[in-house]
Design brief:
The chain is α+β, with helices and mostly antiparallel strands. The protein is built from two helices and eight strands; from the N terminus they run ββαβαβββββ. The strands form two sheets. Strands 1, 2, 6, 7 and 8 form a five-stranded antiparallel beta sheet that branches. It has a three-stranded antiparallel beta sheet with strand order 3-5-4. Helix 1 runs parallel beside helix 2.
Length: 133
Amino acid sequence: MKRFEEISHTADWSFRAFGRDLRDLFENAAFAMFSMEGATASEPEIARPVQVDGIDYEALLVNWLSELLYLQESNRERYHRFQIESITPAALRATVFGSPGGKIEKLVKAVTYHNLKIEQTPEGWEAVVVVDV
């Protein structure tokens, strides 16, 4: 199963993430966002715990990706690996792995609720996300 695909969008960036289960879906959505930025990792690898809350899976996804953008900006780090430890509609706990510094081709400014959709399909889970650049 592919991790994500870019979706054509007039002004912003959009992608569809895929996952066998919700953990996989949220990990692949984070991977998609940083891949689209063109972020490159360097040594040494660091690990950061992340915990976010939400009122449903859609809000949780926006909060998850927004927290990662905040960590990227405040710590000047680039993330490339994501490990969801627990997920419910109201909370997510994870560890993200990345490195200090690194290059970004185009910075994502914010994750939006525009066209946001999470659905279960016969193949697993899919999410459509639009980000502001």
